[in-house]
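In the laboratory, one determines a bound structure by crystallizing the protein with its ligand and collecting diffraction data. In a computational setting the workflow is compressed into a single prediction: the sequence and the ligand go in, and a structural description comes out. We illustrate the idea with adenosine-5'-triphosphate.
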Amino acid sequence: MGRQKERILIVDDEEDICDLIFRLLEKEGFSPIVAHNGFTALEMIRLGMPDLMITDVRMPGMSGMELLKQARSLDTNLPVIMITAWGGIDGAVEAVKLGAFDYVEKPFNFQDFLSKIRKALEDRRPSLAKRTFCDENQNAAILRLQEMMGPSDAVTKIVGEIALVAPSNFSVIIQGETGTGKELVARAIHDASQRAQAQMVPVDCGAIPETLFESELFGYEKGAFTGANAAKPGKFELAAGGTLFLDEIRNMPLGSQIKLLRAIQEKSFFRVGGKKPVTVDVRILIATNEDLNIGVRNGSFCRDLFYRLSEFTITIPPLRGRKEDILHIANRILEATNIELGKQVKGFSPSASDTVVNHAWPGNVRELRSAVRRAVLQARDFIDPDHLGLEDTLTDGCENNSDSMESILETGLSFKELVRRSTTEIERRILEEALRKTGGNKAKAARLLQIDYTTIHAKIKQYRINTEDN
Ligand SMILES: Nc1ncnc2c1ncn2[C@@H]1O[C@H](COP(=O)(O)OP(=O)(O)OP(=O)(O)O)[C@@H](O)[C@H]1O
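The predicted complex, in structure-token form:
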């Protein structure tokens, strides 16, 4: 095992500066993390992520001074280095009085900057020595996830939640639209946990009929039923010491849900045809496209199972709600596809970037991935909007011609999901049109559509439609 990398939090609203310091620190063998505002930084400190913080004094919202005060009250041992504008010595003196370890002036002298960082970390070292191998693993897994999912505050929040919950044995519900990366998040929780050395076993709950549920999950003994020529362990046993990832749990038949609940509660089960109970230590992660509360309310999801599973919930917002991540992910997919296809596509033209950022991505990253891969295949130097082939997908048209149907199928969504998405899209457009007709007056729009005010208000919020008062 090599030297443990110190985690250095860079806080600055200017992305270029963050980028510059990030690259410098990475090159010097540190493990940098970034927050673009004080609130996100405090969240990371609350989770015990950084060993040192570097923050600009001047930032919109929470100033560097305010951040310093609050950070020191959360972690009195956290060394803080302030970045001040050239000649901003008064602020620097005040910062040191407030407990900052030191300050650097812009423009940086990098050697001086690095030696201050190293000195500050010396102070912190005794607490670093206590860190376990597991912390190293955890750090690597969650940083990898942030790099994959993007720089938005929503992703930073998810990463913080993973850091918090991964070391525990809590069951976690991972909720998000199809293609948002729920399996990726589950994988990061597993990799960042003490169970990382054992397996994470995925189970597609919707794909197992109720009659096969027990044998798939709990295994069977030889002769348990016709065709059981040899004993076979189930998914629970395969995940022993590790994690069982139950994907699309909403599609699990009710009868199977009850059997699952019993196994979780009793921490043991019988193989089909088995006489002895099998006890295994398994952590359970769940993915769902829909709020499980809805299933509980309409009786299609077992209430007790829901209570047992919902120890912690992570919600992944859809791509269209975190536009900062879209180009980041698109560029990563572009680079990977370049390597796969032996091409050298340089990037997205300005109009293609606009198209990518403004598309609604109903199939989320899965759809983005298909579009970018298709575009890289066709492009020479830069990707143009035509290469993406997005004109006819669900955002821009639900016309019933064969071309648009072809691109709808390329979203990779199931039939059920496609129908739901199309209905949702039509609903959104009707609302937009009604609001346009009534000059944005929600009460009038509600009357026009013959729905009540609470419903229209909720739908406007759900679809994030811009009206003057929201
Ligand atoms: N940030 C990302 N960068 C690159 N590829 C990604 C990213 N997130 C997800 N993907 C890819 O998108 C596809 C969907 O991801 P994943 O299966 O994790 O989503 P999901 O939310 O579990 O979807 P579903 O609800 O349909 O099961 C996978 O092929 C995955 O590799």
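Confidence is low (pLDDT under 50) at residues 127-134, 392-403. Keep in mind that any predicted model is a hypothesis to be tested, not a measurement.
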